[in-house]
Amino acid sequence: MHRPARILVALLSAAALLATAACSAEQPAAENRTLKIVYQKTDSFTALDTLFKDAKKDFEAANQGTTVELQPIEANDDDYGTKLALALRSPETAPDVFYEDTFKVRSDVDAGYLLKLDSYLEKWDDWKLYNEAAKAAGTGDDGGIYAVPLGTDTRAIWYNKKVLEKAGIAVPWQPRSWDEILDAARKMKAADPSLVPFHMYAGKATGEGTVMQSFYELLYGTDSELYDQQEKKWVIGSQGFKDSLTFLKTLYDEGLAVTPAEALDANVWKKVFGEWLPQGKMGATVEGSYTPSFWQKGGNYEWAGYGEDMGVARFPTQRGQEPGGVSMSGGWTLAVGADSKNPDLAFKFLTEALSKKNSLAFTVSGSQIAVRTDVAAEPEYLAANPFVKDVSELVSVTHYRPATADYPRISVAVQVATEAVITGALSPQEAAEQYDKTVRDQVGDAKVLQK
Amino acid sequence: MGERKTVRQQLRLLPVVPSVLLILLFLAAPVLWSFHASFTNAALTGRNARNPAWIGVENYARLLSDSAFPASVVLTIVFVVASAVVGQNLLGLLIAGLMTRARKPVSAAVGTAVVAAWVLPEIVAAFAAYAYFSKDGTLNQLLGGAGVAGADWLYAYPMVAVVLANIWRGTAFSMLVYRAALADVPQDISEAALMDGAAGWQRLVFITLPLIRSSIATNLMLVTLQTLAVFTLIWVMTAGGPSNASTTLPVLAYQEAFKFGDIGYGTAIATVLIVLGLVFGIAYVRLLKGDKR
What we know:
The complex is a heterodimer. Chain A is an alpha/beta fold. In chain A, 45% of the residues lie in helices and 15% in strands.
């Protein structure tokens, strides 16, 4: 390019820039605005990516001049939480709308990352359609609502009917106590020693899965609890905690679960869903209501026969005491960043993403339990997989984690205790004592309740 | 005259200025920030995330009562001594020594093989090592071929596995340093010793090693500092497990800061790591000074 030409181009660009600036000054409505959306995406979890891509298309069409910038983070739950927190720490990198685990809501509200949504929700008609338990999931310590749930989940025992029948166990199977689980597992082991009869997660590698899909099913079925809601204190020294660890120890010591080495592989769940259950090498495991999403058409481990081969049972209480079963619920929400420069627009995008159409599609493809009553009533939702009814009923015996700001560290302390027990590093008694000490150190003596 | 000389001397420092600034910006600043953060309760989430408070030496006091901490200091020292000071250093010297005597094609082939592991990006080398030591990995397949049942190395012997992996990965550096050092040893001194009837080991201990002493100290310093900071290799192979059996200080610091969200405590561990590096560093500098006497 010749020199005069270059100068001309530069001048023209500058003029164009000035013109754009002038325009936008006159018409603020047409101003170019960008919304940053951060969410999780993995090979096995693309439902959210689909949802946001659809929402982006519709939203940009309806709101001229607005750009929705999708920033999926490809990571597992733990790493996603870390990356999101790092982004939220600085107002420059904080997203406008983001995908947030229910159990992090309170601590992130404490950190000042989330925008209070009460005034927005008042004006949003669809909010009335959310069920009450779901509304509570996004509530901060001050009673305000900071996040809107996408869906929820429950946990159940998933068993391979063929494996149980081979061991002479009648199906449908419903154990009434911990002992009945052990009896059935031992029968399966005797019938085929190469089997993994009854697997439950343990150790730090499987992170929150260890507590949600294993330890809490045990603990909440004893007469103890993790956190005293009335006193607002963490419970230590309880018999139920030790009994739960002892049960895990029995499973692992007798070879009824996977080997400790396999349990400490962060990818063990892939084998559970992808190999062991479909190939009839595992009798049963405790997993979430989202389990069918792995096996459905388009899922990561497509398995056409899962509807016939698999069965669902509720996890029993320790000695069959009331209410006769235990489940855990979590789920994820969408939240608006406290630093959003366009909070109104961000909330508008959130409602677009959670419209009935998008919610239904996400609930079905992600095997979620619906939180909107209008979605729950849809025939498409009820027909999504053969187990929707069974796992939805578990909501009646479900528990939510004590989502206080201290919770994430307590969760890790529990995971550490399970790891110490299954590897034989500590006895259940010693591991429970170490847990008690960790909890005291973490939250302080004032927030601890010795039982 | 003298004044002009100092001006010229000062001007001669000019080219160094950009690199010093870069070092200050990218090295000293994070170190200072980390040192400062270690006296606060900075966190990833919760009340302390945005407005961390100064809590003095509380994090350091907590380190002393944390059962995972002394174990991880010991593991870090074991890792550095076994894989860097002994493994990489001695193996590098041995290979370099053998290469000076080997024929050219042999020496070139060995050199390439050793350097190959070193030029791999750390994450790739880490996955290769994971694939090698894992339960169904290359090592156990080789052992199985020979009729031996292999162990689950990463689970049963995590430290052995990461130490061997780090030796494999890092030996090339020591080898290159010693190749250069040995090439500088004057032939005539060795020959004179040979005439005097010195045996092979005597020539090594009394002639060669003293002559390359400063190279040894420099090499030890560099491989030690490199190995102290190894994170990716361990994280990919064992993630510090099982039950913290391979949790060195960098792994512990990462866990505390980013997995558990306790940045203040994590940076306190990082500070201990820096101090440990200084201790090793001072020891080697002493070694170097001794050479000049």
